[in-house]
Amino acid sequence: xxxxxxxxxxxxxxxxxxxxxxxxxxxxxxxxxxxxxxxxxxxxxxxxxxxxxxxxxxxxxxxxxxxxxxxxxxxxxxxxxxxxxxxxxxxxxxxxxxxxxxxxxxxxxxxxxxxxxxxxxxxxxxxxxxxxxxxxxxxxxxxxxxxxxxxxxxxxxxxxxxxxxxxxxxxxxxx
Length: 175
What we know:
This protein is mainly alpha-helical. It is 77% helix and 5% strand.
């Protein structure tokens, strides 16, 4: 059964390749491409999203740095005094430091998860709008295919729709 499915896939691939070559030879195949990341980063909407995420990232980093400074100060103090501490006090302080380290790690993980979730939330409408714009351009300008640049190995610049998508995205940017 596997032998036959391999042949079927090979034949289907050849037929697709031949049909695409026939379209290209007749001049009726219209293919465009765009760079989704550039379209989003260059648009006003995308710039707002990037700025919002940067501010959020800085806020979280500042919070983590403060916790880190507190931990470092407590650890440094312990290092200075540990030789004069009795076993009970030393063990208690080690436990406190260990708890602080665990709390910092948990805080960092929670912050990363929240940041990633927030990033997805703010980017989702932007991705959706880019998809709508690409679909509209494809239909209005009668493209057969519009590809995202990340998967291309070569493309003519005349077929790059990124600037057009940025312009359309700027028209629909939320206020």
